[in-house]
Design a protein that fits this description.
With about 160 residues, the chain is mainly alpha-helical. Helix content is about 45%, strand content about 5%. The two termini are about 30 Å apart.
């Protein structure tokens, strides 16, 4: 992300699984400055940005610069860099992981997000909906043996 993400643009960034920002990125929810509360962007912000940071954005309407962006996005491109290099590096890193693990992890993450803390943590499951202990044992054994894991789910 480069440039300004204001109101719905800020909502879009907050709604993404991951977000990368250039050092020139700026974020704001300015509705409060004209007597409106950015209630639609508030939903995504409240669910994806630390509460106090989201409230600060929503209640002040201030612009947050690239330094502030680090607390609202996955990472920044770094000084003098565009977001695009960061996007490519992050995408390549995620693409090098097991597709089944990434998919089931994302499903578990979003499934548990609204659960009370007292409920058990959901277990990531395989395509058949059942835990995949053998697959995990093999990956744990590779980790313990300091070997790279082998992904059997690659296309």
């Amino acid at each position: 992300m480069a440039g300004l993400a204001s109101a719905a643009g800020c909502q879009l960034v907050a709604s993404c699984d991951l977000a990368i920002a250039a050092d020139t990125a700026r974020f704001c929810t300015p509705g409060v400055n004209i007597g409106l509360f950015c209630s639609t962007p508030m939903v995504a912000l409240a669910r994806n940005v630390a509460s106090k940071h989201a409230m600060e954005m929503l209640l002040t309407g201030d612009l947050f610069d690239a330094q502030d962006a680090a607390r609202m996005v996955s990472s920044t491109g770094g000084a003098g860099k565009s977001a695009f290099g960061g996007v490519s590096a992050l995408a390549a890193k995620i693409a090098s992981k097991s597709t089944v693990t990434v998919r089931t992890g994302k499903e578990a993450f979003y499934r548990q997000i609204d659960m009370p803390l007292a409920e058990p943590t959901p277990t990531p499951r395989g395509d058949d909906g059942k835990p995949a202990p053998a697959r995990r044992r093999g990956r744990i054994s590779a980790f313990i043996g300091k070997r790279p894991p082998q992904w059997s789910d690659e296309p």
